[in-house]
Recover the amino acids of this structure.
């Protein structure tokens, strides 16, 4: 539980598995505030995420993926 001042929680709702994980999370958050890369690394150029499908992905799966992406776009219009 992340209630009160739980020492293993961050931002009140994220329970860390260890003090080391908590320290790493807080360090990444601090880097983020300084404009440095965190998480997956360097952000995508111009906000464009390039992707492709493996040759064995069926057309049905591609359609489902594109429909899901459209759902995100409708919910969050700045995602294009």
């Amino acid at each position: 539980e992340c209630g009160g001042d739980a020492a293993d929680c961050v931002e009140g709702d994220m329970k860390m598995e260890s003090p080391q994980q908590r320290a790493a999370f807080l360090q990444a958050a601090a880097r983020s505030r300084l404009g440095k890369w965190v998480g997956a690394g360097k952000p995508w150029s111009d906000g464009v995420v390039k992707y492709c499908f493996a040759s064995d992905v069926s057309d049905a799966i591609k359609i489902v993926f594109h429909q899901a992406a459209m759902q995100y776009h409708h919910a969050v219009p700045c995602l294009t």
User: Anything to note?
Assistant: The radius of gyration is 18 Å. The chain has a mean pLDDT of 80.
